[in-house]
């Protein structure tokens, strides 16, 4: 992905925003570093599998089949193909919100902000969607879906906007405030749908769960059986948002300002941009993305929220991994979301063949892989070193490596 | 809406308002008055809840509540002190909860393997320390972004503990007959949620000072105790006390610049000159 970059107006050592530091990540290594990162993570996780007495190759093969990506192979046929289609639908259902929460984190990064609050914004979007989706049953289908999704976006935007506003007005660190907002949203959700809570389903007083979304607010399924959780049109909505993200960031004044603020707030201020206003704006956009993710999950396949869903969901936290592996670009985010979505569905109880590898073990393996990927992404030193070593072997040691100044900074 | 719910709501509103007064914009320099006020706020919340229900005294006694508070506060305080050490030395520690999780699980695991709770504690310390070592190696030696590597460490802790848990105990949970310090039973490890960045919140609310962290963890421990004890008579509102520490911390951070402010070089990788 060839994103035109804003050139940092001053030497990088004078700015210490995450965006400035990440600028060097994006410059160095192209698509190779993320690929290498994922490869190293899978290798280490494979070692864990091996050490605990399983065969990593058959395990990974079973997980791959669980993702349904073998549907893409023309030689998969018969019953295998039917199963693969079902699994692939699950993978893409999981990918849909991951793309959006990934964008929510990536967008903030480009403005020099670290949005850890994807989980809270996603939760607020889901709460808003389930509330308005379970009401107004008589509304026309398309209108109802549209209204609910817009409200979910607004909910997320307001929630994220709080962090932006606090940063703009009081200088409160957005990392801290978004973490706090995550847990406030989560516990509020548990309260709302918990026993005796204000939004608990009145028909099932002993179950801590919300009311169901009405038929008129459900997203249509375009692949697979709607009764078997087929693939809903939310995937297209999130891909459309990716395109919008790209245009917003690379072809609009807003995007230019946001990137300028990200690289150097001081320089942006001197060139007449309002840094505080940009902080609020950026966070609101992030909330729109993450809130929409929550809305799509509710209208697409969940249709209701139990308090347990609120507590155990990790979609928003995964958004951090998606954005980092995708290098905060539009296309990278889609690719990373597909990887994490595939991992999620490939290791699920529903998709993974338990005779080869225990799914409850595999879901934890997924967490290990995610952790390793984020860990390796946190410093590009490792990947760059491997890369440079490989290049060095090819070229000899005549010329100094071109990315040397960046390495000193990261 | 029942009377208990209304009482709980009043209590919560009181607590939040009092906390707002407790962290005034630029008025108080010392952290002591704000913390005292915050404690009063919680006590007020309890009193408000109490006034809603006459038979409340029978349901929970103060001693039980205090015991519960200390139980929640003790591990939090250790974690918060660790957090202060790393943050004051310039390394942001989002991974605190992951280190706690490692300690919690491997404490049980070690106690089970070695048959003694002392051994369990040693294993817990080593496990938490190993995870902290990973965080340190990446954020100090490899100059990684500290927030990112802290996030990674949390994912890793969840994955590692979950993996060993399932591989060793299966889906059923830890056995009951483990050598214990007091009463420990890990029911919560089955789920895959972070159990809140509450130690981190305590570090921040305590303004990166040990004494502040002590009071913050007691306060948050009390809040958790309320959340766990109140459901006996008011199921729905009690859970909101779980959110209270985060609300208080958010208010403290937002109070005004300089109220709850991280160490100056927190989060910036140190590079030797020359």
Summarize the topology.
The complex is a heterodimer of chains A (410) and B (274).
Chain A lengths: L17 H10 L4 H20 L4 H12 L10 H33 L7 H16 L7 H30 L3 H20 L27 E3 L7 E2 L1 H17 L2 H11 L1 H6 L4 H28 L4 H6 L2 H11 L4 H17 L12 H20 L2 H15 L8 H6 L1
Helix pairs in contact in A: 2-3, 2-15, 3-14, 4-8, 4-11, 4-13, 4-14, 5-6, 5-7, 5-11, 5-13, 6-7, 6-11, 8-9, 13-14, 13-15
Chain B lengths: L2 H20 L9 H21 L3 H4 L2 H27 L7 H19 L2 H25 L4 H24 L28 H8 L4 H20 L5 H4 L1 H15 L20
Give a description of the structure:
The complex is a heterodimer of chains A (410) and B (274). In chain A, helix 2 (32-51) crosses helix 15 (359-378), helix 5 packs parallel to helix 7 and helix 13 packs across helix 15. Chain A is globular and about 55 Å long. By secondary structure, chain A is mostly helical. Chain A has helices at residues 18-27, 32-51, 56-67, 78-110, 118-133, 141-170, 174-193, 234-250, 253-263, 265-270, 275-302, 307-312, 315-325, 330-346, 359-378, 381-395, 404-409; strands at 221-223, 231-232. Chain A starts with 17 loop residues before the first helix and ends with a helix. Chain A has a two-stranded antiparallel sheet. Chain B has 274 residues and is mainly alpha-helical. Chain B is built from eleven helices and no strands. In chain B, helix 1 (3-22) runs antiparallel to helix 2, helix 5 (96-114) runs antiparallel to helix 6 (117-141) and helix 5 (96-114) runs parallel beside helix 7. Chain B is globular. In chain B, 51% of the residues are buried. Residues 24-29, 52-56 and 182-194 of chain B have low confidence and may be disordered. Classes of the chains: A mainly alpha (410), B mainly alpha (274). At the A-B interface, helix 1, helix 7, helix 12, helix 13 and helix 15 of A face helix 6, helix 7, helix 8, helix 10 and helix 11 of B.
